[in-house]
Design brief:
GO terms for molecular function: DNA-binding transcription factor activity; sequence-specific DNA binding. Keywords: DNA-binding, Transcription, Transcription regulation. InterPro entries: Cupin_2, Homeodomain-like_sf, HTH_AraC, HTH_AraC-typ_CS, RmlC-like_jellyroll, RmlC_Cupin_sf. About 40% of the residues lie in helices and about 15% in strands. The chain is α+β, with helices and mostly antiparallel strands. It has 2 domains: about 5-165, Regulatory protein AraC (Jelly Rolls, Sandwich), CATH 2.60.120.280; about 180-285, Arc Repressor Mutant, subunit A, CATH 1.10.10. The strands form 2 sheets. A 6-stranded antiparallel β-sheet has the order 1-7-2-5-8-9, covered by helices on one side. It has a 3-stranded antiparallel β-sheet with strand order 4-3-6, covered by helices on one side. About 35% of the residues are buried.
């Protein structure tokens, strides 16, 4: 999936594209594009799939995604309800590495931002608190125009460069040409997301992809950096984290709700992925 014309609010052509999303229709799909994606989640939560990383996202998260890295913003069910979805609030900016000109970032003053755009190939994450200046910049860029928007974007990138960011994509993940796999991967990921609370047969996924089991495992690992089992396990644990953070559901009920048939397997997988036991995670997640 490649972004086409870069315009602002359908008006004049610009060197980058700013969008205000109040519904996750543009995110809830496995996709990639040549443009970098700079996004602040102002309202909304769910699970982000990027390269070989699966992690929860929520309000205050700022993410910079490099070119051609597959990603999928899987919003929580309340934001996708067919009858009465809860609105989201996200500022999304797409731009090419050369959006300010081929030589602009070779200026000595631009070294920091130039380095940041290279680091974006690993996907970068940071969470703002309520006092962070990035909040105002993302707010203002939605209502600014032309030259002012450009200045705000450069300022936001400069500030983001100096944040203590987390790299999301591992060094082992290879960015490939995914052009022929858009529909196939979306079908596979949609099936897993719909059925991860149940037992998923490898043969069902392979049949969906039109492959043998062995070929599918190699294909899926190449595209996501994970085996199908690793991918499903991390999705289940991400779902468990939401339950433990947002509800008073008993631990054993969370275990079954997230697709596990016995608590020991759930406990071991949860601790391996999060570094905490489910009980300790729940204690840590409860606001003091």
């Amino acid at each position: 999936m490649r972004l086409k014309q870069l315009t602002h609010q359908g008006s004049s052509f610009q060197s980058f594209h700013v969008r205000h999303d109040t519904y996750p229709k543009n995110h809830n799909v496995w996709h990639y594009h040549e443009e970098l994606e700079f996004i602040q989640v102002r309202k909304g939560s769910g699970t982000l799939f990027i390269g070989d990383c699966i992690r929860k996202f929520g309000p205050g998260d700022v993410v910079l995604i490099g070119p051609n890295i597959p990603h999928y913003w899987f919003f929580d069910p309340e934001y996708l309800d067919a009858i009465k979805p809860i609105a989201t609030d996200n500022c999304v900016i797409h731009f090419q590495k050369s959006f300010a000109g081929e030589d602009f970032f070779y200026l000595p003053e631009m070294t920091g931002i130039k380095d940041l755009l290279l680091e974006a190939n690993k996907g970068l994450w940071y969470r703002c608190d309520s006092t962070d200046p990035l909040n105002k910049l993302f707010e203002h860029i939605l209502i600014a125009g032309g030259f002012e928007q450009l200045l705000i974007l450069l300022q936001a990138l400069y500030i983001f460069h100096h944040k203590n960011k987390i790299m999301l994509v591992s060094d082992n993940y290879a960015i490939l040409n995914h052009s022929s796999d858009h529909k196939r991967m979306n079908d596979i990921v949609d099936y897993i997301q719909t059925n991860f609370r149940q037992h998923i047969e490898l043969s069902d996924l392979a049949n969906l992809a039109g492959m043998t089991n062995n070929s599918f495992c190699r294909y899926f690992k190449q595209k996501t950096g994970k085996t199908p089992l690793e991918f499903i396990t991390e999705l289940r644990i991400a779902s468990a984290c939401k339950f433990l953070s947002d509800t008073n559901t008993p631990l054993k009920e969370v275990c079954f709700e997230c697709g596990y048939n016995n608590y020991v397997s759930f406990h071991n997988a949860f601790k391996r992925i999060t570094g905490l036991t489910p009980k300790n995670y729940k204690i840590k997640a409860i606001p003091k």
